[in-house]
């Protein structure tokens, strides 16, 4: 067959798509901003794209967009009752420090749970539990955190609401892309999803441990994890020192050196800086964070006597009588802190905590921290008072993955827990066994969560990852433009020409591989939204069942294993696990290839393409 020449409209839409893909990969701006730029471009070029203002903003009213927003809220309602935290604590007790049992409990719990609760909060709750458990058991958290993320992603294939890509695909299927097929049913994906989860879990329990390095050494002291021992020292204030009579914070702000004062020790009392309003007196001992050269310059400039470099450990910083806490914070991908420096955030003044080190993957930074520009996935070691620790724990822009032990060891179930879980199960049941669509039952569940007091309305809005919502709302019109301009048909013709004479199941597998590769660099949601129309049209051109092709794209959207930026849970474990970019490729590529084969064969059995 001959492929016709592309029209001007197609070329314009292809150009917009190409620029969007390059922007996604290069991360010139955040993905949601790229998507909104696409939306605006489509309207500005309406004579060629045929996308007017009403079509451009239709993504905000899409059933997929509204459903995903509601599922974020429902998941938050369940999480706030303490159900997930309680489950994590139970697992910590039963595993008893055994590496295999810890890994099995992590994978075996996270996967099924992610099928009904949004996987992002599941991973957010399990990161501190896994990190603490690894520390207590003298195990490296690096052995468990990538499997945690992957298991959550695999669990998303179990149900329609397991992941946002399933919901997007369902919304597209409900159009005329797949004739005589309405939205994907709640458990329509479950038979193949169970196979995918089981195969992936076996891989994570047997092969992955051999491939995962111990990037973060097994240790009992968090200061060792962040390699800060060489950056901690103590100095005694002499009577002739210029610091005598100054408040700790005033002395700190007047210094040009890269030195942070963590503690003021006076006799048997320890005061945490910042936050101390006491004047420095002769004989006080200051615990500081700085490299050896800056400590020397600091001591010389202010006539201080350096004490022997006794080890300042995590225990000495956070002993119960000191009322100081060592916290590990992770910057989520959607945090407003991304792109800012600590100086711009006024972190120390704003939260009363001192950042001691910043980890980005396997690289730890100890110096000039105020000028460090934060990125999604960064983890920060922070020293703060107990009050400041509580303030940071309530901050929506950071995720506390290591905190006071008494806050995480015995989480209490709320009296609202049965109500919240019951509401979520009711939402799923109504969507599965009645004529009500998932968007209606999910919104009804949100109303029920708020009315019953399981979720405050402000918390409901805060629970939504608005960057995902805007990404989806901005990219759906591009999917529509590809169809309206004939671009999807043109690409389908090209693919059909390339696949001429090939077995239909091999073509299904090719779409799986293509989607999986794209999902690793341009986000799963964008990949599914762009490729579902092309896959469906290709199937029509080949005389195959378009639903089987759409399912290949849908399942592949949940397998962005090969990069930390492929999925937000991958990025969330990047810093706490101390991983390198290549670790995801080493562990994720074989898994992605394995699932490409398994899923393709599964589709061939359950939904034969022809």
TrEMBL record:
Chief location bin: membrane
Transmembrane parts of this sequence: 50-74, 148-169, 189-208, 419-451, 463-482, 518-536, 548-567, 587-607
Residues covered by the RCK C-terminal domain: 220-304, 314-398
Keyword Transport attached: yes
Topology versus the membrane: Multi-pass membrane protein
Subcellular location as annotated: Membrane
Entry annotated with the keyword Transferase: no
GO CC terms in record: membrane
Coiled coil: none
Keywords: Membrane, Repeat, Transmembrane, Transmembrane helix, Transport
PANTHER family: BASIC AMINO ACID ANTIPORTER YFCC-RELATED (PTHR43652)
Record protein name field: SLC13 family permease
């Amino acid at each position: 067959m001959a492929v016709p020449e592309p029209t001007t409209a197609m070329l314009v839409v292809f150009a917009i798509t190409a620029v969007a893909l390059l922007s996604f990969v290069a991360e010139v701006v955040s993905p949601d901003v790229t998507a909104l730029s696409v939306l605006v471009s489509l309207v500005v070029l309406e004579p060629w794209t045929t996308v007017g203002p009403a079509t451009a903003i239709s993504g905000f009213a899409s059933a997929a967009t509204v459903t995903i927003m509601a599922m974020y809220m429902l998941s938050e309602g369940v999480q706030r009752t303490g159900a997930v935290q309680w489950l994590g604590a139970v697992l910590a007790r039963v595993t008893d420090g055994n590496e295999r049992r810890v890994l099995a409990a992590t994978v075996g719990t996270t996967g099924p749970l992610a099928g009904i609760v949004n996987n992002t909060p599941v991973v957010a709750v399990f990161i501190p539990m896994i990190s603490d458990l690894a520390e207590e058991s003298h195990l490296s958290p690096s052995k468990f955190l990538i499997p945690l993320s992957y298991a959550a992603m695999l669990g998303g294939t179990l149900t329609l609401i397991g992941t946002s890509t399933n919901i997007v695909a369902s919304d597209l299927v409900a159009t005329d892309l797949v004739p005589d097929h309405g939205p994907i049913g709640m458990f329509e994906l479950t038979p193949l999803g169970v196979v995918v989860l089981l195969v992936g879990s076996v891989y994570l329990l047997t092969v992955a441990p051999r491939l995962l390095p111990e990037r973060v050494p097994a240790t009992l002291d968090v200061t060792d994890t962040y390699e800060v021992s060489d950056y901690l020292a103590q100095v005694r204030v002499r009577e002739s020192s210029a610091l005598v009579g100054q408040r700790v914070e005033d002395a700190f702000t007047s210094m040009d050196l890269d030195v942070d004062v963590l503690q003021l020790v006076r006799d048997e009392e320890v005061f945490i800086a910042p936050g101390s309003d006491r004047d420095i007196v002769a004989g006080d001992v200051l615990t500081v964070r700085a490299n050896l050269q800056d400590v020397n310059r600091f001591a010389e400039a202010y006539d201080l006597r350096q004490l022997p470099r006794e080890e300042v450990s995590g225990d000495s910083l956070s002993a119960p009588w000191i009322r100081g806490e060592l916290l590990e914070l992770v910057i989520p991908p959607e945090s407003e802190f991304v792109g800012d420096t600590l100086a711009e955030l006024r972190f120390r003044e704003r939260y009363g905590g001192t950042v001691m080190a910043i980890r980005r993957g396997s690289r730890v930074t100890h110096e000039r921290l105020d000028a460090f520009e934060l990125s999604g996935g960064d983890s920060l070691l922070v020293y703060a008072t107990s009050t400041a620790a509580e303030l940071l724990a309530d901050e929506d822009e950071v995720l506390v993955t290591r905190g006071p032990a008494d806050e995480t060891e015995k989480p209490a179930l709320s009296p609202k827990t049965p109500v919240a879980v019951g509401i979520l199960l009711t939402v799923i049941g109504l969507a599965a066994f009645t004529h009500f669509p998932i968007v209606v039952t999910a919104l009804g569940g949100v109303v029920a969560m708020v009315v019953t007091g399981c979720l405050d309305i402000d918390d409901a809005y805060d629970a939504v990852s608005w960057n995902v919502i805007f990404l989806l709302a901005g990219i759906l019109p591009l999917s529509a433009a590809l169809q309206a301009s004939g671009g999807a048909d043109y690409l389908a013709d090209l693919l059909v020409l390339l696949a001429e004479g090939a077995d239909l199941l091999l073509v299904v597998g090719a779409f799986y591989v293509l989607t999986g590769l794209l999902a690793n660099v341009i986000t799963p949601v964008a990949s599914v939204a762009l490729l579902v129309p092309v896959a469906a049209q290709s199937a029509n051109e080949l005389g195959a069942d378009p639903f089987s092709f759409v399912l290949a794209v849908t399942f592949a959207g949940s397998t962005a294993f090969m990069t930390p930026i492929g999925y937000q849970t991958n990025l969330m474990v990047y810093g706490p696990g101390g991983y390198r970019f290549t670790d995801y490729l080493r562990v994720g590529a074989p898994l992605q290839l394995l699932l490409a084969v398994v899923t393709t064969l599964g589709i061939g059995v359950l939904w034969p393409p022809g």
